[in-house]
Amino acid sequence: MVRIYGKDTVTVNGSKVIIRQVLFHGSKEVTRAVTDIVSSARAWIRMTLPELRSKPDPKVGALFGECFANPPDTAAAMNTVRSSLSTIGNFLGRELGIKVREDDDAHGYVKQYYGNRVHLVGGVIQYEDDGRTIARQGEVHIAKDTVLENPVLATITLIHEAGHKFVNFQDFDDQGYFKDDLSGYSAPGLTWQQALRNADSHAVFTYKVMESKFKTVMVHGRGLVT
Ligand SMILES: [Zn+2]
User: Fold this and answer.
1) N or C end of the chain, less CB within 10 A?
2) What pTM, to 2 d.p., does this model score?
């Protein structure tokens, strides 16, 4: 089934965000939530970058080891991550297109975190309902349910997807996806070399840095639903 998408354009911190939703299914609430999600993603990255320094806060150092599989040369790995996140942050700060997709085709869809990832970004090449590749359309996709019910997760997803789009990050199956509650990877075995190219490592790291600074992280009035 070919879907017809409508378009809303909002300005978030001075740059345009074009939000596309299925016509007749879209809502103002989605537009407001996406505005908060984009604003949050930019802020998380902006605040995480200065934490990546030669003598990091011990809490940040521990989170870095957890998310990036304890690289032997932490300083060099932090430089790499800082460079990647900086590029993602630059692109997220410019005009940006986001498509909010319906999930009524989600047979077997697991509602929470991991399921969202499999459904949206399980693999390097992803396909739309009509068979066109998402990458060719040049837009980041986030599920509508996630946007409305779990905007913190949607923010993590935005950074994750932006990593694929802007710096060619990959997924490494269960080894590269965090569990629903973000307590660790879904399966052991991710190497530090892979972690430096893994979308979820970077997205979850920024979330965890924010959580370590602020204790709770709220987006659009909600914390993370796990
Ligand atoms: Zn992915």
Assistant:
1) N
2) 0.85
